[in-house]
Amino acid sequence: MFSIQIDEQLQLKLLQEYDAEELFTVMKGSKESLREWLPFIDSNESAEDTLQFIRSSLKQFSANDGFQTAIVYKGKIVGVIGFHHINWQNKSTSLGYWLSKDYEGLGFMTKSVRKLLDHAFHNLKLKRVEIRAAIANNKSRAIPERLGMTLEGVSRQSEWLYDHFVDHAVYSILVEEWKIRS
Amino acid sequence: MFSIQIDEQLQLKLLQEYDAEELFTVMKGSKESLREWLPFIDSNESAEDTLQFIRSSLKQFSANDGFQTAIVYKGKIVGVIGFHHINWQNKSTSLGYWLSKDYEGLGFMTKSVRKLLDHAFHNLKLKRVEIRAAIANNKSRAIPERLGMTLEGVSRQSEWLYDHFVDHAVYSILVEEWKIRS
Amino acid sequence: MFSIQIDEQLQLKLLQEYDAEELFTVMKGSKESLREWLPFIDSNESAEDTLQFIRSSLKQFSANDGFQTAIVYKGKIVGVIGFHHINWQNKSTSLGYWLSKDYEGLGFMTKSVRKLLDHAFHNLKLKRVEIRAAIANNKSRAIPERLGMTLEGVSRQSEWLYDHFVDHAVYSILVEEWKIRS
Amino acid sequence: MFSIQIDEQLQLKLLQEYDAEELFTVMKGSKESLREWLPFIDSNESAEDTLQFIRSSLKQFSANDGFQTAIVYKGKIVGVIGFHHINWQNKSTSLGYWLSKDYEGLGFMTKSVRKLLDHAFHNLKLKRVEIRAAIANNKSRAIPERLGMTLEGVSRQSEWLYDHFVDHAVYSILVEEWKIRS
Amino acid sequence: MFSIQIDEQLQLKLLQEYDAEELFTVMKGSKESLREWLPFIDSNESAEDTLQFIRSSLKQFSANDGFQTAIVYKGKIVGVIGFHHINWQNKSTSLGYWLSKDYEGLGFMTKSVRKLLDHAFHNLKLKRVEIRAAIANNKSRAIPERLGMTLEGVSRQSEWLYDHFVDHAVYSILVEEWKIRS
Amino acid sequence: MFSIQIDEQLQLKLLQEYDAEELFTVMKGSKESLREWLPFIDSNESAEDTLQFIRSSLKQFSANDGFQTAIVYKGKIVGVIGFHHINWQNKSTSLGYWLSKDYEGLGFMTKSVRKLLDHAFHNLKLKRVEIRAAIANNKSRAIPERLGMTLEGVSRQSEWLYDHFVDHAVYSILVEEWKIRS
């Protein structure tokens, strides 16, 4: 209901409790593809689990520590994007996202990331936004690269995915760079 | 930033911490007229006080217990509207609102209330919404009357306003009534 | 143990943990008649549930936010009466009560309500006390009417009772009215 | 208001917030004599401090961990008595008390202690109650001795009183002993 | 890992979460002998229970309210010793301990108690340390007696052990006494 | 008091409340040199501030989320080292440290880091430890380089230091690498 409008068909809707059922269904529909790169798929077994996730992200929002939004296309949830945490002392945050496999390749994520970068630098007055993606996750890495973010390095064995560690490519963009680009 | 769009120029924006300065300024500008019917004006002496109000309303939101939004006209805050509390057991809530004196008479509040009634009955699946206004507060009472809400009675000496009690006219609308009207 | 004495045989005893067993038994004995107007009967399935209720009412008491007492006749619990919540800003509260079916018609409730009104206006310095009862609950409505409280209106579909909503008759009494009557 | 009746003129009233002013005044009136044996007199400088004490004792009560009552004689507070803490695992507690200097020698404290011992053993089903008093505090020690409690030993340098330590005489009574005596 | 060194082979190691498995195994191995005097053996049925104990003792440590350490001999846990609670107002604490039956009679406990007394008086600046042991628990009572602590009295029916109460011998040592002895 | 022994003269002592005074004095003595790279120097104005830091690090320790230790040389505090946070899901942590200017160049920090790496991989079973240092902070960067840690990249404008941002060199070491080296 509470949304950031991106264009006529696309919006970022703050996740609320009554979204749990729909969000769970979307995640279940893309379970195979999501599980390849997201660590929390196996523990999200019911709408009740998804509700717990939404509740904890609402607490995060009310603590001014980031938020999670649904990417909504023509009224339907097609993915999730949000800030994991906001470091107010150093004025930085990091972005995470996933998209239903049925809506890949349509530019939704690039638009969504661009909108949240704008929010981070313009409304929240942050100075740095980071995006991390597994080295081999080409679809995810394509986003920061398309947006001209800087690859700062590789964080080795950075995340545990069910039965193995993956290395993370670390990208960042600073407020000055964003201003030039906008 | 996170908003419910009403029409091209009007939206209900979930209050966030970075709105404190602007909201305080608006309240200060209408201090005289707001103080006539709102009990919290005298204790709202700085943007820091307004920030505390916003923080407590964000906690309310994250607890799924209602929320407070800024009424935004052409990008500027002109008032506040929200649900005070949600009684999930009995599926009811109550609405409160105020408008800057400079934007009265333009139909903003009627549109805003209508939008939130829609949200209450459609998204939140509530069954009853209440509006209370002081007996002599004609501008405020005009809203539920214009929307065809039912006057249920008068709650005597219901609210303390600085140095005297006021009686409240109690209006309600039920989901069935809303459906017929929409 | 901690009691307000009403007369030689009747007292209002602050509910404590060791009352759970007796209170549960009384509620079970009147289950049929209580269930007609009270929403919490079906979820009170054991003395453990009653203990939870007592614990939460003790928290309410220690937060200066009202309390729940057992109506005790000749040493036996025969009902419950208490203040649901105290609104200190507006100096008001509301009263709720129920009586075991075996002790109806003896004037216990009228005496108990009168005693708590006295406590509200005299000790707590409140200005307004409200009583709500379902429209068709004649026994409950008889109390505020007998005490000369004012019927302020009808709150429609105000409470969910297992499978249907009921409308509430809303009564109130103000401190000035109480002083005249006492 | 919520009281345990001892006799026609004496009662133990659960301390509530609205007692703060009266209790503070009583303590101030006996400041000299109370300060000799009580450690908290110097930090009780206003009715606000007394209110904090009452609030913490209400939390103790609601946690089923003991309570503090005012000793009330002919409607006036003349002292305080209560259980410091209840050890439910070992079914024991300890009693503390003080009396305004103007009401000493009238047997109030002996009656009050006797009543609370009855409460501890009968209602709370405890097995052991302890009373500690400074070795040289003859008035306080007279109570457990009059009640036939057993002197178990001396706890050396047990309590800090502003500028020196005092040794405590430790008395106890067990449920079997109480039953014989009652 | 974080330890107080007693001698080349003996140390007191602050209990941490990763000690749960080893500590549980040691307790299980001495279950028969420990159960005679310790009340918590029957409820310690798995390493998970031991982990809960460790977590609560870490909270105690972080609140500056005492701590629990493993007695470690040649790298192996052979017992536990710690301060139950610190009374900062009166500058006192009490010591509790147990030893695996396989390591009795080697002087470990006397050395451990001596070390913690030193810590209490020297680092924590306390004035009094108490040790309580069941009257008939000769092994436990031998420690304070060997260290010249004073027997202050007998606390009757002081502790519930599964199916009976035991009386406690109460020993103490004051800082002046400790200084003379060291 | 609770320490990890490094060698005869050097140990890592878990910070406790009674260390506040000494630690504050050490920080004040090196204020000029510490302020160049540490963000919290200006807000550490008294032993009371240092006590708050110690308390929060004890909470961190009791939550199994890392800890802070004093580097102690011949019984005197000469610096601080600790884990900022432990990510148990991904089995990683990061190390931070500082040394009094009077004790630089003696190899204390290299020994301390080596000891904590051992603790992280051996006791805590972690898989990855990270060290971050400002690009121009040569003394700090020398430690991970001396230990053969891998420079993974540069985190741009990563930390706010009073009036400017600094870039961080990010180093890591994995458990396999540590095993080879040990």
Q: Could you describe the 3D structure shown?
A:
Six copies of one chain form a homohexamer. Chain A has 182 residues and is of the alpha+beta class. Chain A has one domain (3-181): Gcn5-related N-acetyltransferase (GNAT) (Aminopeptidase, 3-Layer(aba) Sandwich), CATH 3.40.630.30. Chain A contains six helices and eight strands; from the N terminus they run ββαααβββαβαββα. Chain A has an eight-stranded mixed beta sheet with strand order 1-2-3-4-5-6-8-7, with helices on both faces. In chain A, helix 1 (20-29) packs across helix 3. The longest helix of chain A is centred in the first third of the chain and has 16 residues, at 47-62. The mean pLDDT of chain A is 97. The A-F interface holds A 39, 89-92, 127-128, 130, 150, 152-160, 165, 170, 172, 174 and F 39, 89-92, 127-128, 130, 150, 152-160, 165, 170, 172, 174.
Short description:
Six copies of one chain form a homohexamer. Chain A is an alpha+beta fold and 182 residues long. Chain A has helices spanning 20-29, 31-35, 47-62, 108-123, 138-146, 175-181, and strands at 3-5, 10-14, 67-73, 76-87, 92-99, 128-134, 150-161, 164-174.
Percentage of residues assigned to helices of chain A: 25-40%
The global form of chain A is: globular
CATH topology name of chain A, in short, is Aminopeptidase
What's the CATH C level of chain A? Alpha Beta
Spans where pLDDT lies below 50 across 5 or more residues of chain A? none
Q: State Rg of chain A.
A: 16 Å
Biggest sheet strand order of chain A reads 1-2-3-4-5-6-8-7
Note the beta-strand portion of chain A: 35-45%
